[in-house]
Amino acid sequence: MNFFDKLHNNISQNQSLLFVGLDPNPEMMPAFYQSEDVITGLWNWLQFIISETSDFVCAYKPTLGFYEALGVPGLELLHKILAVVPKYIPIILDAKHSDLNTSTIFARTVFTEWQIDAITLSPYTGQDHVAPFLVYPDKAVFILCCTSNLGAKTLQHYPSNESPLYLQVVKESKNWGTPEQLGLEVGTTNPDILGFIRATAPERIIMVRSIWEEENNFSQILKVGLNSNGDGLLIPVPQDMLASPKLSEEIQSLRSQINHVRNEVISDGSTCSVWLPDVCLLNQHPQHDLILQLYDIGCIMFGNFVQASGAVFPYYIDLRKIISNPQIFNQVLSAYEEILINLRFDRLAGIPYGSLPTATGLALRLHCPMIFPRKEVKAHGTRKLIEGNFCPGETVVVIDDILISGKSVMEGAEKLKSAGLNVNDIVVLIDHEQGVQDRLIENGYQGHAVFTISEITNTLYLSGRINEEQFLAFSER
Ligand SMILES: O=P(O)(O)OC[C@H]1O[C@H](OP(=O)(O)OP(=O)(O)O)[C@H](O)[C@@H]1O
Ligand SMILES: O=C(O)c1cc(=O)[nH]c(=O)[nH]1
Asked: Is 380 annotated as a binding residue?
């Protein structure tokens, strides 16, 4: 089960958007737990917090820095804490890690060894830094977009209040991962800031921080931050409450107050127009999630692009990026597989270069031999036109990423046929439409595509990824 499913299960089971920080901060530890051995005191206190709150929270959030500050015993304490948190409650490690050199190894440690469900990250080192954390399909990251720290104001609001850096972080990080993989961390007491962020990222989970610094804003903060389903926010339990001997009672009372506001938001339905596109499941494309993920990793770009033919289209599809995201690559292979299982063939042939990784992945998955027609024949070595072994008379299915004019796949198929192979079917991820399928049929081939460009743009428009102008530019092509 992925992080967001686990989170949502817990939200509905415990009817709670509250999360609790599991921080061994000696300065906040109640006197009752003070002992000669500070680690023992902290361990007892944190166990008390877990036992009092596990039925009323949706997640726990240990802050790595507090554990590190206690040295080796602190890290041992972290492991003990991770072991006692009930398995069904997701754990978000607050690490704000931002070191590019160590991100791959740190992601592996946190997600596979420590079995943490999600992590907070700083955005400043960009997508390269976040990507190693996103290759774990069941895990998630929260990108720090904004803090309530006064000293950060000059940076966060740069260059102007109309176009502040923190909103740029929100817009940029939305391209790094899907809503199931990437949430936002927002520390603010200002409902306007949270409102701007919610409007920019209506589909994201927002983990709010510091909202209790101005208690009067509580209801307003929730109303601008919650989505029309009355969720989409993770809300911290105030730190002071964790020192109370009546923690369980207090947290239940806080949960009731929050749920009261959630019910008002649901019955009001005022944010419905923002959310309708993402929650409407009617007529949703079966590959809806895959389309959004391809868009989010930058495979589908809108703007004026010159194509290989010299024509200018209002978009460009670059599927060569898929290989850098194993989780999405895997879904792409599954989508091809659904088509291929209904076809009869002896071998797969990939069209170079873009589709060679895909054909290779499919060959491994389907246990089917692969060959490929070269783009250019070398003047040295074996000078082969087709690489890999085959027997004339065999049937080959051609794999490519996209059909624009159909020239590439048909040229590849002709090379295969000239070597005595049969080619009937051509399978691609994206069909550009505009008559390309008919062109294939005229030349004796049957084209199969996972989705068409129209299905992609409809999905992106309905889910709010592209605006009306981009959608219309496509429709009028
Ligand atoms: O239907 P068409 O008009 O032929 O266009 C589609 C082809 O264009 C792209 O390859 P490209 O030629 O850009 O080369 P690459 O795969 O080597 O990057 C794509 O991978 C398809 O093979
Ligand atoms: O050659 C093209 O026209 C082309 C190739 C490709 O991979 N994507 C695209 O949108 N156009």
From this structure: yes
